Amino acid sequence: MNSTKNLDRTLVEITSATPHSIADVVDRLEAVQQNAESQAPRFKEDGIASFNYLYTIITKDVQEKLQQGGYFKDSDFLTTLDVEFAKRYLSAVGCYAAKLLTPRSWSVLFDHRGNDSIRTIQYAIAGVNAHVDYDLAFALVSTCQILGRTLGEDSQHYDYQRINEIFSIHMRELRKHFENKFETEIDDWMVADLADDAGDLTVVVSRDMAWRRAVQLWEIRDDQEATAKERAHIDWRVSMISRGILSLPLI
Question: Alpha-carbon distance 21 to 24, whole Å?
Answer without folding.
Answer: 5
